[in-house]
Amino acid sequence: MDQIVFQHDTVLSDVHMHLPNTRHLMTRLNSAGQPVFMSRFKILAERHEHDDPGKCSETERKHDDTQEDTAASHGEDEKEGGEKYVEPFLDEDGDLDITHRPRKNPSDGGSRALVCPVILKRCSPVPEQEEENTDDEEDDCSKDTIQIEHTMATPLEDVGKQVWRGALLLADFILSKPEMFRGATVLELGAGTGLTSIVMATTAKTVYCTDAGEDLLNTCKRNVSLNKHLMETSGGEVRVRQLDWLQHSLCTDADVDFSWTEEEVADLHDHTSFIIAADVCYDDDLTDGLFRTLYRLCSSFPHTCTVFISIEKRMNFTLRDMDVSCEAYNHFIRCLSQIQDTVDGRCTFRVEQVLSNFAQLLVYERVEQLELWRLTATPLPV
């Protein structure tokens, strides 16, 4: 697919903005007829370097030395220029021939660090009939590479099929705090492509990866199969299940795909210690449904549960306000305040923002509009 056509009603995640004029390799069409792409996201191996922000890398030192040498050379040129007249160099036609300084490659350093907030590599998809025989693919994909199938430039109702920076921020937090989630039972709401659930399964015991819509859940299932190599060490397991925030109960009908078993419902109720959600608050009705679901689940748990929600503050100019506003984000903040002020004798919620100073282990642009929030739900004694 040589060129992606953008319609007036489509939305494109910043994560998918690669380089201009780059060929985007389509792997298949989903059931909705949308093109599906395969991307690889590499987990950075040099974690200790990111834990020490003050540590200067070898590349940075070389770049500083180069700047000093350039400045010194420039000073010498000015000095020589002040002492004597330099005859201009003319070409064979008599035109002035100007010798330009060599341009620096942006990847060699500069006043602003180069950030590639996108896809590092693309590979071929794993056919469904060959998912059990993926030895060659696993050899090609290292133990620190996440493979994700996703769509691009979707309508607003299908944005969950893309990868968003909020998911990468939450994945970074999980990777930087593995001891916090080790051996835990975790529920992800609005999992989308399943990227955050896959990262969570590298340390947690059981991850319930949930969303609504058969096509989206099938994508999650394929992505989980593609990344089994990441979960081998921890023994973690991802179970893709249906959970619609606008419904009040879990589907346990065995004839329905991605339904829950009675044992899983009991496990969710008795052992879930963390709930996560990544960049799911872009529509007020969905945000209301998210917080109603959080309250319903947490108030039914017999134990304390911690919720992590990542969000990107998106600014838009509105004719109503005649100014730049963040309506979806503002509604999210109001919901946080309301759930913290709720008093009904069942449970209490404590809300706090998590500083985004943890290590960055995935390559993306961690803009200041990205935020991570922690909600601690504590049941009250009956």
Could you walk me through the main structural features you see in this protein, from its secondary elements to its overall organization?
With 382 residues, the protein is of the alpha/beta class. 31% of the residues lie in helices and 20% in strands. The strands form four sheets. A seven-stranded mixed β-sheet has the order 8-7-6-9-10-14-13, sandwiched between helices. The protein is globular and about 95 Å long. Residues 47-83 and 109-140 have low confidence and may be disordered.
Keywords:
7-stranded mixed beta sheet; single chain; 3-stranded antiparallel beta sheet
User: How helical, in percent, are the residues?
Assistant: 25-40%
Major β-sheet annotation: 7 strands, mixed
Q: Overall 3D geometry? A: globular
Instruction: Please report the distance between the alpha carbons of the first and last residues.
Output: 60 Å
| Total beta-strand segments | 14
Structural class per helix/strand content? alpha/beta
Cα gyration radius (Å): 25 Å
> What average pLDDT do the residues reach?
79
List SSEs in N-to-C order: EEEHHHEEHHEHEHHEHEHEEEHEE
Number of helical regions: 11
Strand percent estimate: 15-25%
Strand order of the largest sheet: 8-7-6-9-10-14-13
Unreliable spans are: 47-83, 109-140
